[in-house]
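Hey,
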Amino acid sequence: MLSLSGCANESPRSTPPLPVPKMLFRPCLAPDYQVRYYGDYPGYVAELLAVIEQCNNKISAIEKVEGFRGASNKYYFFSNKLK
């Protein structure tokens, strides 16, 4: 009779989570509203859009770190099943 042995006694090791850089949690501050004339308004809107883009980039970076956390844990546990 053929018998196979495995690593049934080993407990799965989890990888430590990647730290999210603290700079990604800094608030995105809106520029001061210094519109005095109608012609000043488009420049202010452009500054606001730049701040919104900066915040979206930070959120995207946080999602990437969180995605790497999930992907690395999924891969590790998946690879453990193959051993």
